[in-house]
Amino acid sequence: MPIEVTIDHARRLVTATGRGILTGEDVFGYQRDVWSRPDVSGYNELMDMREVEQIDLRSIDNMRALAELSASMDAPAALSKFAIVATTDEAFGLGRMYETYRRLEGKSTKQVGVFRSLNEAHAFLGVA
Q1: Quick check: 55 and 22 in contact, CB under 8 A?
Q2: Backbone angles phi, psi at 52, to 5 degrees
Q3: pTM
């Protein structure tokens, strides 16, 4: 799977690292598999896209649907943060699109930020 997931329960942080060619199927699968787990409810999230060589999301509608699905899986009473590290223009632009769609979702309880560096993302999340 092009998305490797690590969970740090002590820091309440899910880190997803994308590699190679990333498809909409990969991203939706990650969302469903990881965020349906009760033990990570309310955790912060880091999506590291630095090793993604190509993004194969077929349409903008996929991004909107992903934001809707993600927001529907948020812990309703827990505010958390989601940082996306995107070094390429394509990944950064898609990240910003996702950020916008996510902000428009009424059920969303995650604040999304898109960053060019891991240090910036860590600062946003408040982790070392």
Answers
A1: yes
A2: -80, 125
A3: 0.94
